[in-house]
């Protein structure tokens, strides 16, 4: 019974990491990338997202609650999992460890980012280009955001590889190798989008 429950939780954790959390990450990076076109372009994109119908419902049930479960259960996995050298070999073992490390970094980053943006917005601050420009004007915060973005993107991309395996989409060594190339390509592409976006606020 306990094994069935843990199997279900791990599948749910994997699924939520891709849908909706991974999709939200991608969408968030794309919206932020409008900053590369200037303050007005970013502010229009941010205002569009703010005016979405049922925004609070979407934020709570499609973003925050799935993210909360993924984060809490992810911490449990990070601190209880054993290295899997014998199962996946040297490269995959490194990916396994990096997945846990970037998960912890991403959690710290997301909590801080939500505090600086969504929580401040609840107190009356306006989430716009100037807000982000003021945040990353501090070189330490700029470095923190770059590390946080790269960690989040890696965690999503490598998690996507694990999702394909755990859900039986890639079962052969060849398909898993191809999946590695695809997911690392996603990591590079989204990292470029995210870093270009944050540097546009400098």
From TrEMBL:
CDD domains found in the cross-reference section: SQR_TypeB_1_TM
Main location as per UniProt: membrane
Binding site for heme: 28, 70, 113, 155
Annotated Gene Ontology cellular component terms: membrane
Swiss-Prot/TrEMBL keywords: Heme, Iron, Membrane, Metal-binding, Transmembrane, Transmembrane helix
Transmembrane segments: 12-34, 54-76, 97-115, 135-157, 178-199
Localisation: Membrane
Statement: the UniProt record of this protein carries the keyword Transferase: no
Gene Ontology MF annotations: metal ion binding
The name this protein goes by in its record: Succinate dehydrogenase / fumarate reductase cytochrome b subunit
Species for this entry: Anoxybacillus tengchongensis
